[in-house]
Amino acid sequence: MHMAMDLRHLRYLVAIADQGSFTRAAEALRMAQPPLSQQIARLESDLGVRLFKRSRAGAIPTEAGAQLIERARTILALSEEFRAFAQGLATGNEGSLRLGMAGSLTLLPLIPRAIHAFRQARPGVRVTLEESNTPVLCRALQNGQLDIAIVRPPVPDPNVIVRPLMDEPSMIVLPFSHPLSGQDGIHLRDIAEDQLILFERHLGPGYYDTIIAACLIEGFSPLLGQAAPQIAATVPMVATGMGVAIVPAYLRQIRTEGVTFHPILGTVPRASIAMAMANRAPNGILRGFADILRGLCMDAAPGRQVRD
């Protein structure tokens, strides 16, 4: 009958090799020497190979024993690595974070700042990014392909948990050639006669409807021009003279020649931003990133409204 070998026996082998004798190894292992000798004898019998040459001077690994001891060291090291990794997973210090972001939100300064702070706090966690529109991101959350997503509400899936983060104010984008390009603040009604370049509604129905509603409050229905394939794409389209645009204020950092950005006076449409997660218990990694992002949003600039 074979002896059930476990990590304890591998530690015995390594201790004898390191100490050079059974007596000193037993002392290092805090056990009696006879049981140690018995365990090694049984192990040699079970493996069918002599592991040590015994003499009055001590114990020296045989050629086969030396090779097996090196394997034992490797296995013990892997065992410790496995244990440390498991503990890291339990505490949220090891593993991965799959982060999804709605189009153009990668340009929001808070996002790279949150990722940087998270990676500094948990260097053992690998962060991967995916950019798409909100409905696609919600499906990825439900399918387990993403852990968390930064989206523009509303979320089409009732099974996805949404945590509001903040409302970003919008700005008007004009081409240099526009008569109002030299002004600072502009009312929405000042662009009532201009072609308005909007993104396709399915990319962010909540923000799209907010823009239209703000125009209606200001007393006009916008003249919709060519639709942009992404929210950020509206800015270069304005530069070509195709019309004007209303965009989240953070897109001002897009350095596009031929356009000017203007604060909106009166009714200001705001771009809502939220965290979305599948309806499952969050792990330590997910909670850690959510806490960092939420904290940065609480420190947001005065022009932004933090959502509770």
UniProtKB/TrEMBL annotation:
Gene3D superfamilies membership: Periplasmic binding protein-like II, Winged helix-like DNA-binding domain superfamily/Winged helix DNA-binding domain
InterPro entries, alphabetized: LysR_HTH_N, LysR_subst-bd, WH-like_DNA-bd_sf, WH_DNA-bd_sf
Keywords assigned: DNA-binding, Transcription, Transcription regulation
Gene Ontology CC terms: protein-DNA complex
Protein name from the UniProt record: LysR family transcriptional regulator
The UniProt record lists the keyword Transcription: yes
Domain of life: Bacteria
UniProt family annotation: Belongs to the LysR transcriptional regulatory family.
One function term, GO molecular function aspect: DNA-binding transcription factor activity
Domain HTH lysR-type: from-to ranges: 5-62
